[in-house]
Each structure stands twice: as structure tokens, then as C-alpha cells.
Amino acid sequence: MSNAHNDRQAASEKIPVPDHVAAAVRTLIEWAGDDPTREGLIDTPARVARAWREYCRGYEEDPAHHLTRTFDEVGGYDEIVLLRDIPFQSHCEHHMAPIIGKAHIAYLPRNRVVGISKLARVLHGFARRLQVQERLTAEVADCIWDHLQPVGVAVVIEATHACMTARGVKTPGVTMTTSRMMGVFRDDDRSRKEVLALMGF
């Protein structure tokens, strides 16, 4: 584990938790049927509050910022750029249950490219908010389309939803897939098939 990660974790553990936030978590523990004053739960309200600040830190950033530094010198490269199997975690805005999955993000550059890690950062910036998968897919694609102005963008997200696997219909092992195709990947059949094949579909 890196020193930077340890420093961030230590800083996170020092964030003061407002009384009303801790009280809300204690109320939820009581509602669930447990005693928030017992030894194992005494520190839980503060831990939960800090965890949710971390889960939702995407609200504190503009994901588009990661696309501001681009490169024009690509040696004449004009084919698909694809980042596959990017793991992510989010939370469903309806039940605040985990959404865990992977994303495949591709674009066809017009005249500039971005550092490949920035695509993952855009995904995480939107995922670290309360979400629905359909909106997450659209937000990632729209952000790349608007700020890189490529010939095409393709985003496919596959994820499991704890609001379905752990409650309600209780159906584990189900994966939801969403996609957004823009530009040439939407308008041209051959280009769409090519990018989907590269993604493994």
C-alpha cells in the first residue's frame, strides 16, 4: 500500500463528523433493531459517516477536468482507443446499495488523444456519486464526447446491483449491461461492430 494512500486514509479518519450526521446513523441502527450504545457499535456512526464521504467523493470534483490535458502528436494514429475492464464501485440512488462492475470506454480520436488513465478517472468521478447505471453510462460518454470532440465514443458498463441481489427479488449472479454509442459508433454499423468486438462482445 502506498504512502500517499495511507496519508489519505489517515486524513479521512480525522474528518470531524457533525452531530446530526452521527445521530442519523444511530437512528438507522436502532431502526434496524440493534443498540447503538453497545461496545461494537459505539464508533460505527462516525465510521459510517466518513465512509460515505469517501464513497461519494465524486461530488467534490469535475470529471471533465481530467480531459483538459490532451496530446496532438500521435504519429498519425487514427484508430480506436479502448480501455477495457475498468473496475468501479458506485451506490444506487434508490436504496444506497452497492453497484459493482466494470466499464469499457472507447473513442475514435479526431486530432487529439488523452492520457489513457484519464478515462478511468472520468468513470470514477461520476461513479463516486449516488447513481443509476443508465445515467452513469451516459455521463461518461457525454463527458468524453463534449471535451475531446472525437469522431466517436462508445461506453459499455456491466455491473451487479446489491439492491437486486441482496434484497427485494434477491437474485444473485445477475449482471446489468448498458451502453451509449455516439458519433460514428452510433451511425455506422461496421464501426459499431468493430468496437464491440474489441470490447469482447
Q: Overview of this structure, please?
A:
This protein is of the alpha+beta class and 201 residues long. The protein contains eight helices and seven strands. The strands form two sheets. It has a five-stranded mixed sheet, sandwiched between helices. A two-stranded antiparallel ribbon has the order 1-4. The chain is elongated and about 65 Å long.
Largest sheet: 5 strands, mixed
**Structural Rg:** 20 Å
Q: What average pLDDT do the residues reach?
A: 93
Distance between the termini: 34 Å
Instruction: List how many beta strands DSSP finds.
Output: 7
Could you tell me the strand content as a percent range? 15-25%
Gross morphology is elongated
List the total number of helices: 8
Structural class: alpha+beta
* Helical proportion, percent range: 40-55%
Low-confidence stretches: none
| Element string (H = helix, E = strand) | HHHEEEEHEHEHEHH
Strand order of the largest sheet: 5-2-3-6-7
